[in-house]
Design brief:
399 residues, alpha/beta
Length: 399
């Protein structure tokens, strides 16, 4: 029996089938590919738009555009000594009553550093601090979000701000004060770019932008005046520009769960609850089978064609050939005078093959290969099997 297609014309058909399969796979996967590409583009755009902070940013000894050497020199020329500290110990040793401690790059400070600095007797100026630094120095101040307005008016009675006037902040963080405190340079939503609070022993001023202190922006609007008023408010200034801490110095022996903020833990819990609810919603309910009428009538030809397309899409020639042979045996058994149960009984295979061979022109080997043989090698072989089974059934009916 022939179960493979003839060689002629096979290559073009195979190429066409491969192109069709590739096209179906691309159509099913293009949505996922587009989503991944969109995420990559967004990530690259955010990384490109995010301002990068150089190692010398806000360094009072750096002449670069993002350094603060110009402001430090202006303070010295106006009689305010500026001491540059590179570590927490140096800053604590130089800062005393009547001194303004300017703290920049708070992301480089460990929790131990922040705890030690929070008790300093000098007034403190925090320049765009982290949330951990705010919690240590001014727990009543909370970060609200970024603002991208170029300039802003003081809008408060704080002398250091009202004397400076309009200031060019550009990109800045905003804050709110819970309790006593002064808020200046507010946004349209009421959040402030500059806040000052008192803690009993000293005052803490929080500046949400680095622009007024940098060499590049110092000459804009009232930036120089604001920087001098803030950093030069005391008899001297101690500028803490900390070096990078040693690797692992801020983590200690804490686990990953200890390092995760509470908000991240709460988000993970919410995601777990959402996944559980979706699983319960989509879960299959086990119960007895309920027979109900179909909403529409499906023609048998459409059902057969649909199953055939599914078999072809899955390349399930084994299942398709089994279905063809099983149906042929179901139709042949009554014609041969055998019980219907023998059609799917493997022990009755020999009897069925012999009975069919006697009533057709084929021998038992050919009939056995047609009714119980292996799966076809390709789609053409499956079509050839269909023709053979139809011929067997036709000859049995006519015998």
């Amino acid at each position: 029996m022939v179960t493979a297609s003839p060689p002629r014309g096979g290559a073009p058909a195979a190429e066409a089938s491969a192109r069709q399969v590739a096209g179906r796979r691309w159509r099913s996967a293009r949505g996922v590919v587009a989503a991944v590409l969109a995420m990559i583009v967004i990530a690259v755009a955010l990384a490109a738009l995010r301002p990068s902070a150089a190692a010398e940013a806000l360094d009072p000894e750096s002449p670069k555009q993002d350094g603060s050497r110009a402001l430090a020199e202006i303070l010295r020329r106006h009689g305010t000594p500026v001491t540059v500290a590179r570590s927490t110990g140096d800053a604590l040793g130089a800062a005393g009553p009547g001194t303004v401690l300017v703290v920049t790059r708070t992301e480089r400070l460990t929790e131990e550093d922040l705890a030690r600095l929070s008790g300093v007797p000098a007034d403190v100026l925090l320049v765009r601090p982290t949330s951990f630094a705010l919690e240590a120095f001014a727990p009543q101040v909370r970060r609200r979000g970024p603002s991208f307005e170029e300039t802003a008016e003081p809008g408060c009675n704080l002398p250091v701000a009202s004397l400076a006037g309009t200031v060019g902040f550009h990109e800045s963080e905003t804050y709110e004060v819970a309790g006593a405190g002064t808020a200046c340079y507010r946004t349209d939503y009421g959040d402030a770019r500059l806040v000052q609070v008192g803690t009993g022993t000293h005052t803490v001023t929080v500046l949400g932008s680095t622009a007024p202190l940098t060499n590049r922006r110092l000459t804009e609007e009232g930036n120089a005046a604001l920087g001098m008023n803030l950093a030069g408010a005391g008899a001297s200034a101690v500028w803490l520009a900390p070096d990078l801490p040693k690797a692992g110095s801020g983590a200690g022996q804490r686990s990953l769960g200890d390092l995760l903020p509470f908000g991240v833990k709460l988000l993970i819990l919410q995601l777990l609850v959402a996944v559980l609810l979706v699983a319960l919603w989509r879960a299959r309910r086990l119960g007895p089978v309920v027979a109900e009428a179909l909403p529409v009538v499906v023609r048998s030809a459409e059902t057969v064609e649909g199953l055939a397309r599914l078999y072809r899409a899955g390349r399930a020639r084994d299942r398709a050939s089994d279905a063809l042979r099983s149906g042929a045996r179901e139709r042949l058994v009554p014609l041969l005078g055998l019980p219907r149960s023998s059609a799917q009984d493997p022990s009755a295979a020999r009897e069925i093959v012999t009975a069919v061979a006697r009533r057709t022109t084929y021998d038992e080997t050919y009939v056995g290969a047609a009714l119980y043989g292996p799966e076809p090698l390709d789609d053409a072989g499956l079509i050839a099997l269909t023709d053979v089974l139809d011929d067997l059934e036709r000859q049995v009916r006519q015998s």
